Fold:
Amino acid sequence: MTNISLEHCLSFINSQTIPASKAAADTALRRAVTISRQAGCGAAQVADALATYLQKHLPRPGVDWTVFDRNLMEKVMEDHCMPANLAHILAEDRVSEFEDILAEMFNMRPQTQTVIKQTAETMLQLASCGNVILIGRAGNIVTAKLPHVLHVRLVAPLEDRIERICFADHKSPAAARQFCIQEEAARTRYVRTYFKADINDPLHYHLVINTSRVGCENAGRLIGDAVMRMKL
Structure:
């Protein structure tokens, strides 16, 4: 579900267009979720379980609960008329300042700061519509002022995350460990550099869930119950 196509994303956006006469009543039904995660703690599975749970228990006519993860950058590029071949270099914290300077000089691609701003604008648009689950990219910081958005942090012991990655991605234990360490460093740097925040600060979240203790399916239901009980 997290790797849905841009066509699916655009279908979601189109489905959010409602008549003005119904806008006020519909606003009360809107909810959204951001998920920050440690590498390998099962965020995709939790998001899928959450979307299924909310679709069943908190339906909104004509609008499916939709997960935005890697496909988010496709939506950003579509929103801001950026070339599709940029997708592979727009991952969280993958571009150095030196590369930024060279790219700006030779008009190869927009500066990272510009992409971050455009990404935030798209995330705000999606969260404002509601019925979305946004994974990563400091979604909790970007949407912090929206009262209908629930912010979640997923964690798990390193050894459990290594085991999950070995199984899911067919990596060796050593490669999985290196992946976890590098991803954690990149995500921490991304949030600190562009949003001046600590990704590990629990005060940035409504819920912090250990997926090794709770399990992905149960985590999805736990988050779903919290969403339905939100006070706006």
